[in-house]
Amino acid sequence: MLTRCWLIGIIVLALASAHGQPGPPTVRFGIDLRRDRPQVERQPLTLSTDRIDVYGGDPDLAERVSSHVEVAIATLPPRFANPSMRFSVRIGPPDDGDCPVRGFASMFVGQPSIGLLVDPEWSDAELQRIVAHEVGHVYHAAARAAVDPPSGDAILNEGLATWLAAPSRLADLGFSSFESAIRSSMERGIYFGMDEEPTPDLSTFASSAEECVALRDALYTQRAGFVGFLIQRFGMEAVIEASRQPLELTFMGREGWRASRLDYEAEFGAPLAQLEREWLAGFATE
Fold first, then answer.
1. If you count DSSP H runs as helices and E runs as strands, how many of each does the chain have, helices first?
2. Which residue from 208, 215, 161 is spatially nearest to 6, judged by alpha carbons?
3. Are strands 190-191 and 3-4 parallel, antiparallel or unpaired?
4. Which residues contact residue 56 at a Cβ distance below 8 angstroms, ignoring those fewer than 6 apart?
5. Angle in degrees, 0-180, between the axes of helices 59-74 and 124-144, rounded to the nearest 10
6. pLDDT tens string for the chain (286 positions)?
7. d(Cα 220, Cα 163) in Å, to the nearest integer?
8. 236 half-sphere exposure, CB direction, 13 A CA radius
9. Range of the domain at 78
10. Contacts of 196 (CB under 8 A, 6+ apart)
11. Number of domains into which the chain is organized
């Protein structure tokens, strides 16, 4: 029997006003909706290139991050080319939460930014894939263009960012394709139902922070496989257009913001549950 776990990956953090009421949301990708975002304190500029400004970290780490950004950009499909775009990367210490955040991307007033909560124990390959995932978010956001966030949902936003980071992600995880990685998870009893409650705390399914991170990796890999299915069937432009669908946000008090569900039938002609079944049926015939 497969374990069914769920997590929402798109983040909307409330900015409190002076009166203590929830202010306008800032979209961040990669952190649980109900968690406080780990703080990346203001850091001095460590490195500046034609493409990015790196704040924090020592010069060696900043150079490595800059190199990984360039590798990630070089492997993006031509549709996402944006030679004039600049963004910042802010490096902070590792998160010590129950399900540690490793990176996030932000879009605020049209200005893209990446945060990296770097653990010195990461291998260079792991740092590369984490950087590539956040680069995927930044270039996906630019491709959506002229859309005030929040829009899309966790499946499309996290799935596409992971799909765009395929070369470094699959190399680090040791798989030749997303499908082979998903099959491996299924064989270990791990599957994340897509058309279920999107906001439970993933750490409740894990016995340690390391296991929680591994589950999140499996979740994002699964979403990338599903997004790849959507791209193959409907085309990249349809997926990008679907990610423009606005989210409706409801403030839930201490629980933070709850996002509405994306209408897959309006975007792809079939509800999410049906698309999921058709995608999984393809696994059985391969």
1. 9, 11
2. 215
3. parallel
4. 40, 43, 44, 46, 62, 90, 91, 92
5. 50
6. 333 333 333 332 322 333 343 443 444 443 344 445 566 778 899 999 999 999 999 999 999 999 999 999 999 999 999 998 999 999 999 999 999 999 999 876 667 899 999 999 999 999 999 999 999 999 999 898 756 657 888 899 999 999 999 999 999 999 999 999 999 999 999 998 888 765 557 888 899 999 999 999 999 999 999 999 999 999 999 999 999 988 777 777 766 667 778 999 999 999 999 999 999 998 776 6
7. 9
8. 12
9. 3-285
10. 4, 6
11. 1
Paired tokens of 133: 């995932």
Q: Between the CA of residue 111 and those of 56, 89, 108, 148, 273, what are the distances in Å?
A: 19, 12, 5, 12, 35
CA distance 239 to 78: 16
| The model's pTM | 0.84
Altogether, the residues listed in the chain come to a count of: 286
If 0-12 CB within 10 Å is exposed, 13-18 middle and 19+ buried, where does residue 286 land? Answer: exposed
CA-wise closest residue to 151 among 166, 141, 165, 163: 141
Q: Which amino acid is at 99?
A: C
Read off the tokens for 97: 């939460």
Is the distance from CB of 226 to CB of 193 less than 8 angstroms?
no
Q: Residue 182: what residue type?
A: I
How many whole angstroms separate alpha carbon 177 and alpha carbon 190? 17
Structure tokens at 275: 């698309």
CATH number of domain containing 163: 1.10.390
